[in-house]
Amino acid sequence: MSGTRTLVTGRGLVESPRWHGDRLYFSDWSAGEVVAVDLDGDSEVVARVASLPLCTAWSPEGRLLIVSSPDGRLLRLEPDGSLVTHAELGQAGWNDIVVDGRGNAYVNRCGFDPMAGESFRPGHVHLVTAGGAVRQVADDVAFPNGMAVLAGNSTLIVADSYRHQLVAFDIAPDGSLSGRRVWAELGEGTPDGICADEENAVWYADVPNRCCVRVAEGGKALQSVALDRGGFACALGGADGRTLFVVVAEWQGMTAADLVVPGSGQVIAVEVEVPGAGWP
């Protein structure tokens, strides 16, 4: 479509796009790298972590937090480029992360390992406070994926891929969650990574349906971007917040030797009308 361009090609399973400063940061799970790219397509590796999944978020203080899934740690990138432990999550298998405007981090975890062929168990969401304390704040999310906090720090949205829903929670001042509800029924839509905009609509990337869709509360589709391969996650950013970045790759299956076709990972940029808001 018009207004679409490709910033990065030749990558593996790309995920977790996050706009910060004047660059987009994303993870290449296949390479175990966190990469920063500017709008001219110039990129550099900013961190290497042997983790799959490999998701990130920026704190209000401008520190990059990285989920190290196999050893159950939340890492922090220091100014000198070193990685230190920000919090001990306590077990392996963590997936996505979002940090709200108060510095509270929400990290989710699947209840089973689909890549190992384990039987299904629902997943959950944990809170990591700004002080590093960890506690569970939600459960029974069939397959928790992307998360976003709407502007105002009062609502957390969690993508439940298996139930084809976006689920919402009210956020208390201490970071606790309550008021669980289905925010959007997506029909055949399978949400992975998500982001929100100024109109409190949510964009979700969809791997099997090869698209990125903007929906209102309730599930009405407002806009759709067709993709030529699976859409794993999305983020709004750019100078005016009106660039939708989508990380895409050719999906091969959860139990395939390579989850995506090697070298098929890309970062694309699409100009949209409504700027991003909230977190990430």
TrEMBL record:
Keywords: Hydrolase
Start and end residues of each SMP-30/Gluconolactonase/LRE-like region domain: 15-249
InterPro entries tied to this protein: 6-blade_b-propeller_TolB-like, SGL, SMP-30, SMP-30/CGR1_Lactonase
Family: Belongs to the SMP-30/CGR1 family.
Name the UniProt record assigns to this protein: Sugar lactone lactonase YvrE
